[in-house]
Each structure stands twice: as C-alpha cells, then as structure tokens.
Design brief:
By secondary structure, the chain is an alpha/beta fold. The chain has one domain: Aldolase class I (TIM Barrel). The protein has 8 helices and 16 strands. The chain has an 8-stranded parallel barrel with strand order 3-4-7-8-9-10-15-16, surrounded by 5 helices. A 4-stranded antiparallel sheet has the order 5-6-14-11, with no helix packed on it. Strand 8, helix 3 and strand 9 form a beta-alpha-beta unit. Helix 3 runs parallel beside helix 4. The longest helix has 15 residues. It is globular, with a radius of gyration of 19 Å. The mean pLDDT is 96. The structure holds flavin mononucleotide. The site of flavin mononucleotide has 26 residues, from loops.
Length: 311
Amino acid sequence: MVKKPGPDLSVKIGSLHLKNPVMVASGTFGYAEEFNGLLDLKKLGAIVTKTITIKPRQGNLPPRTCETPSGMLNSIGLENPGIDKFIGDKLPFLKKLGIPIIISIASEDDPGEFCILAERLDKISAISAIELNISCPNLQKNKLISQDARETFALISALRKLTRKCLITKLSPNVTSISDIALAAQEAGSDAVALINTLAGMSIDVHKRTPKLGSWSGGLSGPAIRPVAVKMVWDVYNKIKIPIIGMGGIMDTESALEFFLAGATAISVGTANFINPGISLDIISGLEKYMADGGIQSLSNIIGKLKECKD
Ligand SMILES: Cc1cc2nc3c(=O)[nH]c(=O)nc-3n(C[C@H](O)[C@H](O)[C@H](O)COP(=O)(O)O)c2cc1C
C-alpha cells in the first residue's frame, strides 16, 4: 500500500526555505551548542542565535531575570562574545547542523555597526539569514531604531545594498503603531519582519524597596504577552506583504496556531525553552497532527485564515 504523504509544513521566507516553520527565538537558545543532547537540533526549522555585536559585551548588572505573573522580566543587556569569537568559537558547531542558521545582530552606539556586521556575515555561506535586532529594550538608550519609521527605513536601505542574504527585521512592541514600522522595513527591502521583542516592564520588591532587576527595568516575555503579540501580528499582517515571524508567549501547539491564524508564516519559541528545551519539537509534531486531523495539506491554508466571530 502506498503511504499517503503527510501535511506539508515547509515555508519560504525570502530566500530562506524552512522544512518546518518552528524556530527558536534569539537570546533564549544561546548558540544552540548549549542545548545539544537535550533535543535533536536538526529537526528545528531554523535556529536564531543570541544577538551578537562587534565587540564582546558583559551585559547588565545582576539580577538579570525575575519571574512575574505568567511571564518573566529580563535585562541581559546583550551579553555576547563579539563577532570574532562568535565566528571562531560558536559558528563551527552551528554550521555542522545542516539547518538554516539565522544570526541576530545589534549595534551598541552607532547604527553603522550593523553595516560592519552585515558585511562580514555576508561572506559566510553557511549563514542563511541575518536578523536585525533593532528592538532590544535593555541597552539604556533613549530611543530604539525600531521606534522610528524613518530610522528603520534608513538603516535597512543601507543594509540592503550590502548583503543579498535574507534580512529579517525584529520589531519592538514598545511603539504607538508597530504596523507603520513594519511597513517602513518592507519598503526599505527587508525580506521579513519578526515580532515581538519583549515589552518594557519593571517589578519591585516592596520589602527591600528595590527594583527586582539590577538595571531597574527590563523586557517582559512569556504567556503574559501573548495576546499583545497576536494582536500585533494581526495588525502587521493586514498592512504588509512580506512574511511575518511571530513570537511572544508561545508555550504549546495551540498558542503557536494562534500566530499562524493571525498571519504569521513562521513562529519562534522563546521563554518556553527555559521550561522545556524540547518544546519546539513537540510543537512541530502538534502542528503535523492538527493539519492531518483537519485535512490541511499546506500551512498556507491556515496563515491569516481567521473567520468572523458569530456569537
Ligand atoms: C532571557 C532572554 C534573552 C533575550 N535576548 C534576546 C536577544 O539577544 N535578541 C533578541 O532579538 N531578542 C532577545 N530576547 C527576546 C526573544 O527573542 C523574544 O522576542 C521574546 O522573549 C518574546 O518571545 P517569548 O515570550 O516566547 O519569550 C530575549 C528574551 C529573553 C527571555
């Protein structure tokens, strides 16, 4: 008997072909080697690395994380070994995996640092895509690039001239209109947008009368932010044409599906990795089952396919 083909989970994001739409979110999966042995890394749709900068960074003062209702606050402050050590020490492991590798980059002071990083990464064939972290809330800056449509447009236009690699722009929820920023990214030549980065937040120890984080405030992630993230994906989906990578509080298959129905082409799993490192693979199996049970052949049949609420 000929076996019926299973549902097709593959998706395309610019030049990037993913065998399934499940990635791990930047900063929650290190450089993947840390998770080796805990799950079969080759089964992931793609890996997004911890954000790297030109120079090494020690990150912010501890404590850098604290629990909040249905979520967590972090203020890691982009601790990373810098591009040279990343290429020398971290990339060889990632290269061997044979799955798409997305490198997240950020600038510290000058947006021109994005150009230097992109030019270097452009020359490395094993790198599939570059994610532009223009939305980190933990850098003690007055304003992020992703909080200004003109600055977003200018940066991505400049980067577009420097690399043919797939460019993914990571957006901040800490804005008045995320869809306006997404549109600026699209018009400047970004291949996709990823949303959302963490929501700015603060938590206080009332007994000590101190903030719970060493840098006072941080970024909120986890299930608490999911409804905000889903709404933002839906808003952006209705404004732009390039693919959306959705994230924010994805904990299981059902929460991943919310993002696809809201218009995401792929999803990233973040905070949930700290609870169950294998959760992304469970979600891949869960999506296969949902599609097989519903007779859904291709993911494109559910992306953005929300129906009117009749009750
Ligand atoms: C501890 C921690 C570190 C993070 N570091 C980064 C980072 O380096 N670069 C980045 O773009 N996002 C970073 N993020 C944000 C996540 O990639 C993701 O956008 C956010 O946490 C929302 O998804 P989640 O609710 O599934 O965690 C970090 C999040 C956490 C919790």
